[in-house]
Amino acid sequence: MPLQKLCVALLPILALAACEKPMSPAQQKVADDRAVAQVEATNHAPAPLRPVMPQALAPAFVAQHAAGGKSCAFVAKGETAAIALALDGRIELQIDGQPAVFSADKGSARLPSGAWSRYLGKALVLALDKPGAGSPIARLVINDRYNRPVFEAGGKLRCPAI
Asked: What would the pLDDT profile of 85-112 be if each residue is shown by its tens digit?
């Protein structure tokens, strides 16, 4: 019984919808173009910004990986432990408790001790700027795939790392 009452209640609404004047081809094209534009805008919108916070690397990790080779360690201002370790062809960090390894962009500028100024990860890009003339401050910037900064820090670039 309740289903029959629902059908009877919806019948006038459906009848009114069926009586709507059809759109002209030009009106239909405008409506279709508007719908396509809305879908494309939704599909091309960048993902929400997700900041990252590299954690300090264990001194034993830095000592083990930097021993005997070319290396640079980035130590953020006000910190004592390195948050990034640049080795030959890669840089290593710890993000969200997990190791994060970025490959060197060999088309970028060379820095001391075999480091590079740009590194590429799966979803992030890391830029490492050495101190400029008259400034002891180096800079580490991590951008997401949309080139938005998700981490920035000034600090010291120690080359060699140990």
From this structure: 999 899 999 999 999 999 999 999 998 8
Domain ranges of the chain: 2-43, 59-158
Rounded to two decimals, the pTM is 0.72
What is the DSSP-derived secondary structure letter of residue 157? Answer: E
User: What six digits make up the tokens of 50?
Assistant: 């997700």
pLDDT attached to residue 148: 95
CA distances, 127 to each of 8, 80, 116, 139 (Å):
67, 21, 9, 8
The upper half-sphere exposure of residue 108, i.e. CA atoms within 13 Å in the direction of its Cβ, equals 19
Q: Distance between CA 138 and CA 78 in Å, rounded? A: 13
